[in-house]
Every structure is written in C-alpha cells, then in structure tokens.
Amino acid sequence: MFKAELMERAAKFRSAQEDQSSHPSACPALVLNADYTPLSYYPLSLWPWQTAIKAVFLDRVDIVESYDREVHSPSLDMKIPSVIALRQYVKQSEFPAFTRFNVFLRDRFHCQYCGDASGNLTFDHVIPRRLGGKTTWENIITACAPCNMKKGGRTPKQAHMRVAMEPIRPTSWQLQQQGKMFPPNYLHETWRDWLYWDIELEE
Ligand SMILES: [Zn+2]
Known about the structure:
alpha+beta; DNA Binding (I), subunit A
C-alpha cells in the first residue's frame, strides 16, 4: 500500500472518530441528586441526552452545566445538558442490595485471600456451606479461582489461608466511597467538579 493511501485512510479514520465524539449520543448527562451529589459513582449515574432533555422539559431536573453541542428541533435550539440535578431528593436506602456486583465492589475487585485482581473472580463462602455457612454479606467474599479451588470445602483456618478484610455488610455510603476509586475511562470536564473534589482535597 502506498504511503499516501495510508495517510488518507488514517485521516478518514480520524475524522470518523471526531464525528462520533461530537455526536449527541456521546453526550450523556451526569445525574446529581437534589443535594448536588452524584446519584451513583459506580456505575456512574449517566443518562442519555434524550432522557436528560425530556426531564428538563418535565421540570424534574435543573441544568447545572452544558456541552457546547446543540440539538435542534423546529421550535428550539438547545445545548445538551452535561450535568443535571434532580429537583426532588431521592433518598438512598441505607444498605445496598446483596448482589454479586456489590460484593465485588465492597472487596474492590480483589481476591480476599491473595490480593489478586487480574484473574477470574469468584465468590467464596468463608465458612463452607456444608459447615452451615450462610450466603450473606458476612460470609461471602471475593476470591480468585485458584484460591477458591485451593480452599475447597474448608474454613480459612483449616486451609491455612488468611482473609484480608473481615467481610461486613456495608452501608450504601461505604459502597459509594468504594465506587469513587473506580472512575470511568471517560470523564467530561464539566463532571469533574461534581465527582471527585473531596478526594483531591484530602491530598
Ligand atoms: Zn486468590
């Protein structure tokens, strides 16, 4: 292939990417609660632009910040909201649901025996079921597949394995704090002020 052709292809590819990034579908709105804290950190509370604009017209949200990009309709031109805040406060339940995802999040996606975070993560009953161990926050931990195999149907003591952190039932607030440690790959500049400022202040 000729160099010129390669360059042309590269240019085409670039412009296609640029087009995509300026497309409304790449402009989600960060959703804040009525107290201007994010509804959720992980996954980050984001709405597609259509949902955000609809909520604006239904008076359910206030626009806090906007993208430069506009959408047009016969009756109006409007900048796409990049940060919106709910008018009505949504009370978060005190305790999060007991789900696979939330257990992983509590354990920061690390095997609680060896600390590995790269492998295939599974769940382990600290006290095995055959010994009466329950499937609860206090008895389920994240474990990599090799550790899970190694431990088998034994207690950690029997298997000579140490649990890194005593498993607890976290509060929603605690889980939110964990979620802050996993910022998404893409953060629009207008989101930053609403997301991680308290972490930076601690430094
Ligand atoms: Zn492990």
